[in-house]
Amino acid sequence: MPKDNTMTASGSLTATQLEQYQKDGFVSGVRVFDSQTVSELRSAIETLEATHSGGADGSSLAQYFRVNGHIVIPLLAKLAATTAILDAAQSVLGDNLLAWSVELFIKEPGSDKTVSWHQDITYWGMGETNDEVTAWVALSDVSVEAGCMRFIPGSHTNGIVGHTDTFSASNLLSRGQEIDGIDESNARHGPLRPGEMSLHHGRCFHASGPNQSTDRRIGLAIRYVTPEVRDGLPGRDYAMLVRGVDELQGWINIAGPQGLFTAPDLALYQQILRDQEANLSEGAEQNVALYDTGRINT
Ligand SMILES: O=C(O)CCC(=O)C(=O)O
């Protein structure tokens, strides 16, 4: 790892990291948790898997892990407010940050699940904004062998490009949405040690391969936006203010869970799901949720 590819004391990106993010549309290897903390976090996630194997309120745990878990699982909401992650996101987006989505991307050892080349914001109803970034935190060793992400440097300078919905069974994206004709010769892997994260732009082309390692590959993706994102867009969406202020109130600001799977939080979860699916489905060939939650852990 290059010498300046480390956290500054405040957690902000270094000038080199920020420059790389702006030029390439992603930056990798940013340390946010020490090894002790990351192993405690992994164990908290795995404890939840053991204690809630039947899910909650009629939905599987995979559903909550994959879609908006921060609404009903306090640990995920707390992670979205981690100081070091926010410092880095602030370097990219400025002082006012909302967490729009928190998701776990888990590939079991030997899993053939992949993620096809895509841009994140294609179906998110946010237009082509630059005011969004994904912090993707490794909670296990996310090596090339384990199926780390790959990125096409500079691809975020494209607008939103066409995606084909393949509905491929081995794809972790529910539509198997895929950008055709990617030239992979420039693709760069973004392997992460446990406790490191990458940041990527919502228009940066990215993908990931199968997990050919003997350990689980666990990634936490937190999508941050600014108050400005909804400016001029129809309707409102939900997000949790995690730093600064939201004077524009274009988002419906949510407070975060009252406890683990409480009744009011579960009701809000269902409400958000209904409202977001209406948005996300726009432009799809079939009316489906963004992610297939039924087969993510196989
Ligand atoms: O975990 C992966 O392999 C893909 C994650 C991804 O596409 C994302 O976070 O935007």
Automatic annotation (TrEMBL):
Report the GO molecular function annotations: 2-oxoglutarate-dependent dioxygenase activity; iron ion binding
- Look up the record and name the cofactor or cofactors this protein needs: Fe(2+)
Question: Per its UniProt record, what Gene3D superfamilies does this chain match?
Answer: q2cbj1_9rhob like domain
Q: Which UniProt keywords apply?
A: Dioxygenase, Oxidoreductase
Q: What protein name does the entry list?
A: Phytanoyl-CoA dioxygenase family protein
- Record organism: Parasedimentitalea psychrophila
Which lineage?
Bacteria, Pseudomonadati, Pseudomonadota, Alphaproteobacteria, Rhodobacterales
